[in-house]
Design goal:
- The complex is a heterodimer of chains A (175) and B (160).
- Helices cover 39% and strands 22% of the residues of chain A.
- Chain A is built from five helices and eight strands, in the order H-E-E-E-E-E-E-H-E-E-H-H-H.
- In chain A, strands 1-8-3-6 form a four-stranded antiparallel beta sheet.
- In chain A, strand 4 and strand 5 form a beta hairpin.
- Chain B has one domain: Jelly Rolls (Sandwich), CATH 2.60.120.
- In chain B, helix 4 runs antiparallel to helix 5.
- The two termini of chain B are 20 Å apart.
- The chains are: A alpha+beta (175), B alpha+beta (160).
- The interface between A and B is large, with 45 and 47 residues.
């Protein structure tokens, strides 16, 4: 997806190609909640699950998905586990070093965050409407979970239009 | 690992290099639906963030930033920002600033990250309230907190 500040995503992709690669086998832990690795991982190929407090909140299989960005920007431990669902390969960067010297990488991460906030915000409007209309708690609970997925799932990426799936986009199917 | 986020003094020095705009009380600083391309930092005073006629936040912390989502996502502003009293702002051309500024860009990224993280924590509270059968009025208050966190720029992420 082109963004106003990153006009040429191919440049970013070429930069990624210069980073070291690391491979995980199915079932291996890529990032552990509560650990602080200082690493930024960008999915090259494969598939992972994002797990928070024992509950899977998202599955991610799209190349370009970013992991570890909140931890480095907030200087705090990772908040979720990321497990490989199959053999998966990542570009690996020292997060602080990369974001400090590479404005495009920083903008890529900032735009991913802005997109997640924007999607969550639209979900929240729906949630407010449901609470005000007195909808059943099961319905409200499902909306909360969808917002949680948007907010909590690391791994959003900008390289492929339509991903991450935005459950609150105006044209998203109703569940 | 040295923090990615600039220290307060560095950030303040950087802001001081930007043009200052003054608004009287009750003036619109940013208008929902408009696309200004501006990144606005509160220098002094106080503002409210209003969406669909409802105030979702009032902000008086210097360094609070507005307009960053619109420029990152290339979309119009989603809320009005209106002064509550006479206020001053540093105003920057957002694309130019974010594309290469080593102080402002990490600051904005960290603010986005902090909002996301804080909203997530409050959402967990909403979930818990739903599970324990709290009344809608209580749940509504927690939802408003999430909305506030999702909707406005906030201030320095290092705790300044």
């Amino acid at each position: 997806m082109p963004t106003p500040l990153i006009p040429d995503m191919a440049v970013f992709q070429r930069k990624l190609a210069t980073l070291p690669l690391v491979t995980y086998r199915a079932g291996e832990t890529v990032l552990s909640a509560a650990s602080k690795t200082g690493r930024l991982l960008i999915l090259k190929e494969g598939a992972v699950a994002v797990v928070k407090e024992g509950v899977e909140i998202a599955r991610v299989a799209e190349p370009g998905a970013v992991f570890g960005e909140l931890s480095v920007l907030l200087d705090q431990p990772h908040t979720a586990d990321v497990h490989a669902l199959e053999a998966s390969q990542f570009h690996v960067a020292d997060a602080a070093a990369m974001l400090r010297v590479d404005p495009i990488a920083l903008l890529y991460v900032a735009t991913v965050l802005a997109q997640r906030l924007d999607s969550a915000n639209r979900g929240l409007l729906e949630l407010k409407r449901q609470v005000q209309a007195g909808e059943p708690r099961s319905v409200i609970g499902r909306t909360v979970e969808k917002i949680e997925e948007v907010l909590g799932a690391t791994g959003a990426n900008l390289m492929y239009a339509g991903y991450p799936y935005d459950p609150f986009a105006p044209d998203a199917p109703k569940s | 690992m040295p923090s990615l986020i600039p220290d307060v003094a560095t950030f303040e020095r950087r802001l001081e290099g930007l043009p200052v705009v003054k608004h009287r009380a009750r003036e619109l600083v940013l208008t929902a639906g408009s696309k200004t391309g501006a990144l606005v930092f509160l220098r002094s005073g106080a503002v409210e963030v209003v969406r669909d006629g409802v105030q979702i936040a009032s902000v008086n912390a210097p360094g609070s930033v507005f307009g960053e989502q619109a420029v990152l996502l290339d979309q119009p502003h989603t809320a009005d920002v209106r002064t509550l009293e006479q206020s001053e702002f540093y105003v920057a051309d957002a694309p130019a600033l974010l594309a290469g500024d080593p102080t402002i860009a990490p600051y904005v990224a960290a603010i986005l990250a902090r909002r996301l993280d804080a909203a997530n924590r409050w959402l967990v509270a909403v979930k818990r309230q739903l599970q324990t059968g709290e009344p809608p009025s209580v749940i509504g208050k927690a939802i408003e907190k999430v909305e506030e966190l999702l909707s406005y720029g906030g201030r320095d992420p290092t705790g300044w």
